[in-house]
């Protein structure tokens, strides 16, 4: 027993009553035509007349199809996580065949078209795998509605022929190309050549189908040959040019939208992965700052100025990581301050070795309106100090940074020394150059240029980055 909603019950009562009243009026008109009103007639003549049989059958077919749409098709489109049955397409095909055969009147086809539109707009929209059925339903509804209107308005036979033959076949080809063929063709070595072959086959088959349908249903109509020639010509244009181009553009546009969504997700994941190591440092931040302040005070009391300076810069760097690094974008000046603090801290460590030369040419004042993704530059400097400094051999590092016309120019040039396995910096480096490359590709696509050159003894990177105001 099918459980129906109250609204569905009311709808079915109204529609079936409307069809029954229409059937009654049609029978009365037939009765009057046979002379049954106001004159004597033989009751057997009424039931032997084929018009009566056709009228009853036509209204019965309309009722059956409406019930199928209301009780079966609509239920299929309300599914939240199941695929719609392919029987839905079969029902649409039967409706169209019965309409062409004259078993459904042009007025009732409008009723069925409106029902299809109601099904489309009340469907479960989140069920994306059923999108092909939804799109086909809307296209079929509009095609049948316009076809019926053309008949009611007594449009030119050529116009009627377009909705009779060309429109249904174009809908089929569009659905077939977008949802079945193009996902397969696009993966082949020669997709365009294969696509043209499929289009040619569809054009030939559809033209043949028009000829057969015309001979079957419309062979006795007026001006049959001209209408058939016109329909075949328009169908060839639609199938070989209009539909393929439209289907190709729709498919590419939808794929681009999916790529943008995937790109956005990758961007978020990239930013999260790049910041993961720094977010770990948020454990007990108050304890860490208190400890650093204690050490800084002790260093000043003992007149250890270099130690106190190093602790102060380390505290500034940690504050930056905890407060600024969690933002999507920060002022370029703040990122440069962090860079300077890191370099200064490393200079304290290496200042006792005369064979280590560290040169920096970093503009002190940066534009106040330029923003950058945090921690984007420091990995290059970390890498330079990790591989370019040796307390045993001559070493050099040169870092330059300048901005001009909203463009950042950043160079790092350093010597290379292989680290021992016991060296802690071999195990605990920066984020890593690979990670920075990914972040640049995700955050600044088409707005950066990264050049990396490496020889046996030297390593060089050049980064050009186009920044934006309050990016």
From TrEMBL:
GO-annotated molecular function: phosphorelay sensor kinase activity
Highest taxon in the source lineage: Bacteria
Span of domain Signal transduction histidine kinase internal region: 274-351
Membrane spanning stretches: 12-31, 51-72, 84-102, 108-124, 136-153, 159-182, 194-218, 230-251
Keywords from the UniProt entry: Membrane, Transmembrane, Transmembrane helix
Signal peptide: none
InterPro entries cross-referenced by the UniProt entry: Bact_2-comp_sensor_kinase (IPR050640), HATPase_C_sf (IPR036890), Sig_transdc_His_kin_internal (IPR010559)
Record-linked SUPFAM superfamilies: ATPase domain of HSP90 chaperone/DNA topoisomerase II/histidine kinase (SSF55874)
Gene3D superfamilies: Histidine kinase-like ATPase, C-terminal domain (3.30.565.10)
Gene Ontology terms: cellular component: membrane
PANTHER family: SENSOR HISTIDINE KINASE YPDA
Protein name: GHKL domain-containing protein
